[in-house]
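The authors assume throughout that readers already know how a fold can be written as discrete tokens. In essence, backbone conformation is discretised, so a fold becomes a row of integers matching the chain in length. A single example would do more here than another paragraph of explanation. For illustration, here is how one protein appears when written out as sequence plus structure tokens:

…
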Amino acid sequence: MPILIDFHALKDILGPPLYELEVSERLSQPGVAIGLAWTPLGGKIMFVEASRMDGEGQLTLTGQLGDIMKESAHLAISWLRSNAKKYHLTNAYGSFDLLDNTDIHLHFPAGAVTKDGPSAGVTIVTCLASLFSGRLVRSDVAMTGEITLRGLVLPVGGIKDKVLAAHRAGLKHVIIPQRNEKDLEEIPSNVRQDLSFITASCLDEVLNAAFDGGFTVKSRPGLVDSKL
């Protein structure tokens, strides 16, 4: 007799699911973004979460972070503070000084795993931009890249493993540094066909790709186009 393999049969044969895809659920509120990390066992997706509360301008970091990750977090908040008016980012009191009477808590879940390395800067910036703008980051986007204080995006390592991790998680778009574009040749063609890659050289390009409809820069009032 023919043997029918359906959903119920698979569950009996393979057992319960080992992994749960929780991407959409985790990104259902502002202040969450998906980064890509490299580990000795391969790439993995990494959620970055942020919240704000009344306080004295303190930045709290949790999640077993190394010194480089802590530096990335401080760089991210400094860049956002210096560009708050440009992107019309305000704290709960409507101030462009994002730390005015405000504390920020950045959390990297899976705290039992030590996380370090220069690749989370763009994710932290995107997470905080979501928090202070009240906008949701696209749930099908993951990113990797380090930043400078001037908003440049620097190349990172482990691109192949990171992209494979995004593909396994069912994501559709991956933001990588422009200088890592050459590393895409190492990725299997079937994986490249399933993903859309955005190469970014600056944080403006990262934010435009991470949010639906882009991340519009607030125009300065009173400026007119010159005819000269």
Remarks:
- The chain is about 30% helix and 20% strand.
- The CA atoms of residues 67 and 116 lie 7 Å apart.
- The longest strand covers residues 42-54.
- The chain has a mean pLDDT of 86.
